[in-house]
Design brief:
heterotrimer, A mainly alpha (about 270), B mainly beta (about 450), C alpha+beta (about 160), A: Fusion Protein Consisting Of Minor Coat Protein, Glycine Rich Linker, Tola, And A His Tag, Chain: A, Domain 2, 2 domains, about 45% helix, elongated, B: about 450 residues, six-stranded mixed β-sheet, about 40% strand
């Protein structure tokens, strides 16, 4: 009885000592944590949220795809301004795809629209009411946009500039100038830094005439940074020639105004 | 039926479309260094020969100094000279811009050098190769040994014209040159051009010298010396070499700086374990006590308008940065982050305060707004401190020390500079180890 | 037989307990820092027999530890016995701080020692103070041990 008590006491003491005083080999190595890498979740949306009617969206998407193909080929149209809107011929499915690839200000490009409509027809019964709904006063905006998308690319261009859709020619032009514009450092953070340059362009995207709208400010004392900024913008435009303009619709974009404002860049 | 309908619609809509002016917002550009071509300056054949140096090479040497200045900013990309098509003399008269555009130059510097009547005359032009026009045309006359300063002044003019910022090339840096073992360092005051040339030593190294600072007028320096084993603040006139102790304080004075108008010295005075901030007027010799607190108050620095002082105090228990009016009233703490803060220095632009921060055993150089917000740490190291501003408030020079082994081996101290954006960190070459750098204002105003 | 077994277990237990306690003591002897203050005797010199010339401080601190007070009392006794001697008290800091603040901190540390000596009857006129900040480390290494040895206030004979 006393012996087991004896044993028990010593075993207890042993374990207490063990836990109270740490043996060197029992020390754990500090865990080598990898450095924390912060990951930012960026939502990528490839379309802006335009409240089109669902059917209209389908049409628009289809036309967008065609349009993108046309835009990305970039060569200026062979001849200019020979719009003959009365020449609407019935589409032939084979020819269509070829014609679309040609960059011409050709009224034949009305075809896609008609094609869509025919597909439309195939899938659903052509309902004049739908069209009516589309051009209904309440949804006139949507209809107009849809119509424009279905028509000549020039109207697509006008539409995109006016509405500022993402992945449009506007973005292409912006991206092009981004590469050419060396923003001068040393601009003051707290001043108005907008430089507006009006351009008259040639059909191939080169500059015919350029004009700085706030010209007087360039020579104002105390605003020497403005002159530097304006000159950098002009340099950017000149280096970037020929500008990424749409291949068609010259009349629409031959007068272009570029608003340079590096304020956002300076803040970040 | 459908056809007619669509034709009708088309007409309606196409006539509705007004051809309004399309406006596109450009809110982003790139920060790529601007490609600039610096043509070797043409040396006029009528130039006299000098014994000092090879005058034929002078044009090239000047362009090399300009090139090195621009390369060190990280904002310009000086193009390689072997790609230049036009010869220096023709380029200076009428550059063929297409040739320069071909090598992607957006700006071009050309010039001419003439040595006559023992005087050096330098002419230079800055051209916009994209717009095909001249931007600046200036000329300077000086003595031949000053040719490096001409190159620096040209660099400043071009830098200002292309960035909108004033330059910082025609400046000097005063620092402490260090040699010897780590526990018995020999320290001397060193003075050099900002690009490391024209080094001059102003003291002999017989006593410890620390923290030298420039006067805005540039020919006076204030620093701390252990002359006769009495650590005090001194004044040194670079031109005459005359040194004098500042005031007659019955104790250690240290951490000196000048006021922006150069008329006062501001420093710390330590007595009986307490360090407070004092000023002394250099003309009247009147001493004013600015802080009155049992804590350590040191490292004072004036705002460029002279109305405020930022300083280092441990009145909260740990080193932090405070701002007060220059008469000592309205003391306000501006740093609240973890770690400790020291060496506050007000930017010559008045918009930022640079500082040293120590956190978890690491040293940081950073900048913050003068109210303490917008703290940005620019660089981290085992040991670095004491930032000093370039005169245009864009670049900081500071020093770094390395770890040393059991006998002090492996120890070194070097000067470094960094842009306030955190980019373009680079070492400034000095012939010895160096610490405590201070940047002068522009030598030519 | 059972007794032997019991005895054996006892010995194992006792033996391991001794080993454990020995291990822990060995660890302590290697670490001369206590609460960030150097407690060793390397770098310490002596003004006289049994009178250490320096006291040590914790990082960024200037208050005296019990050991420091003990050393200073010995210095005070020695100074009261040798009335003709004047001393300079040097205050130092480690390299892990900014230069200017370290000058002030060194001055504070030196004054801590001076004030304590004065409370033990040494006249202030015999005690002058100088700070070297981090300029004169006694141990040039970059290690916590070296830094703790450099955070010191040293009493040096002036005459």
């Amino acid at each position: 009885m006393s012996r087991s008590l004896f044993f028990s006491f010593f075993l207890h003491a042993f374990f207490i000592c063990l836990t109270a005083l740490t043996l060197p080999f029992m020390l754990r190595n500090p865990i080598d944590l990898p450095p924390i890498v912060s990951v930012e979740f960026i939502e990528i949306r490839d379309e802006t949220n335009i409240p089109y009617a669902p059917k209209a969206r389908k049409i628009i998407e289809k036309v967008k795809k065609e349009k993108e193909r046309v835009v990305s080929e970039q060569a200026p149209p062979a001849d200019i301004a020979k719009e003959k809107p009365d020449r609407i011929s019935m589409p032939e499915d084979k020819k269509e795809k070829q014609e679309l690839k040609k960059k011409k200000q050709n009224p034949e490009e009305i075809k896609p629209q008609i094609r869509q409509v025919s597909e439309f027809e195939k899938k659903e019964l052509f309902d004049p009411n739908q069209i009516a709904a589309l051009i209904d006063k309440a949804k006139e905006e949507q209809a107009e946009t849809q119509r424009k998308n279905e028509k000549l690319t020039q109207s697509n261009v006008k539409n995109s500039f006016a509405k500022g859709l993402s992945l449009s020619e506007e973005d292409a032009l912006r991206a092009q100038i981004f590469g050419c514009w060396s923003v001068p450092l040393g601009l003051p953070f707290d001043e108005e830094l907008l430089v507006r340059i009006k351009l008259k362009l040639k059909p191939d995207g080169t500059i015919l005439k350029s004009e700085i709208l706030d010209h007087a400010r360039m020579n104002t004392p105390g605003q020497s940074f403005y002159r530097v900024l304006a000159e950098s913008a002009l340099r950017a435009i000149r280096i970037c020639q020929p500008l990424k303009v749409p291949p068609t619709g010259y009349e629409r974009w031959k007068n272009l105004q570029l608003n340079f404002d590096p304020t956002e860049m300076l803040k970040g | 039926m459908k056809k007619i309908f669509f034709i009708f619609l088309f007409f309606v809509i196409s006539f509705k479309n007004a051809y309004s002016l399309i406006k596109v917002d450009i809110t982003r550009g790139n920060l790529d260094p601007l490609p600039i071509a610096i043509s070797p300056l043409h040396v006029d054949s009528k130039s006299e020969k000098l014994s000092l140096f090879d005058t034929d090479k002078l044009g090239e040497e000047i362009s090399k100094v300009i090139e090195q200045n621009f390369r060190s900013t990280g904002l310009f990309n000086p193009l390689k000279k072997d790609s230049f098509v036009q010869k220096p003399d023709i380029a200076h008269l009428k550059p063929r811009f297409e040739d320069w555009r071909l090598i992607k130059a957006q700006a071009l510097i050309t010039g001419k050098v003439l040595i006559k009547n023992k005087k050096l005359k330098v002419e230079f032009r800055l051209w916009d190769t994209i717009a095909s026009k001249e931007m600046i045309a200036l000329s300077f006359t000086t003595t031949p040994p000053n040719w490096r300063r001409v190159a620096h002044i040209i660099s400043d003019k071009v830098y200002e014209r292309l960035t909108g910022e004033s330059g910082y090339f025609d400046t000097r840096i005063i620092y402490v040159s260090e040699t010897g073992p780590k526990d018995r360092r020999i320290k001397k005051l060193g003075l050099m051009d900002q690009d490391g040339y024209n080094v001059k030593y102003l003291t002999l190294g017989n006593e410890l010298v620390l923290t030298p600072r420039f006067n805005p007028a540039n020919q006076l320096i204030t620093y701390m010396s252990y002359f006769k084993n009495m650590p005090r603040v001194y004044l040194l006139d670079i031109e005459t070499g005359i040194q004098e102790v500042v005031g007659s304080f019955p104790g250690m004075t240290f951490a000196p700086r000048f006021s922006p108008d150069g008329k006062k010295i501001i420093m710390s005075f330590a007595k009986d374990g307490n360090s407070d901030i004092y000023t002394m007027d250099l003309k009247t010799r009147i001493v004013e006590k600015i802080t009155n607190h049992p804590s350590i108050d040191t490292s004072p620095s004036y705002s460029p308008d002279g109305k405020f002082i930022c300083f280092n105090s441990d009145r909260s228990g740990i080193q932090q940065i405070y701002v007060m009016r220059s008469d000592g009233t309205q003391v306000k703490r501006i740093t609240f982050g973890t770690g400790l803060y020291g060496t506050p220095v007000w930017s010559p632009r008045g918009d930022l305060i640079a500082f040293t921060k120590v956190r978890k055993g690491r040293f940081y150089i950073g900048v913050m707004r003068t109210d303490g917000t917008g703290e940005r740490l620019l660089t981290e190291n085992f040991y670095q401190e004491a930032p000093s501003w370039s005169p245009n408030g864009r670049v900081l020079v500071f020093y770094r020390e390395t770890k040393s082994g059991t006998k002090g081996e492996g120890f070194s101290a070097k000067l470094w500079s960094i842009d306030i954006t955190g980019y373009n960190e680079r070492q400034i070459k000095t012939e010895t180890d160096a610490s405590d750098p201070s940047w002068s204002s522009l030598l030519s105003k | 037989m059972r007794f032997n077994k019991a005895l054996r277990s006892l010995f194992i237990v006792l033996f391991s307990t001794l080993i454990i306690s020995a291990c822990s003591t060995a660890k302590k002897a290697a670490d001369p820092l206590k609460n960030d203050v150097y407690t060793g005797t390397e770098t310490v010199e002596y003004l006289a027999n049994g009178v250490p010339d320096r006291v040590f401080f914790a990082t960024n601190k200037f208050n005296l530890t019990t050991a420091a007070r003990d050393t200073l009392r010995k210095q005070a006794t020695w100074l009261r016995k040798n009335k003709k001697i004047t001393v300079t008290i040097e205050g130092h800091a480690d390299e892990r701080g900014t230069r200017e603040y370290n000058l002030a901190l060194g001055e504070r540390r030196a004054n801590s020692a001076k004030d304590y000596l004065m409370t033990y009857g040494v006249s202030g006129k015999r005690l002058s103070v100088i700070s070297y900040g981090k300029e004169r480390p006694v141990n040039p290494a970059s290690s916590p041990l070296a830094w703790s040895q450099n955070r010191r206030s040293v009493t040096v004979k002036a005459n």
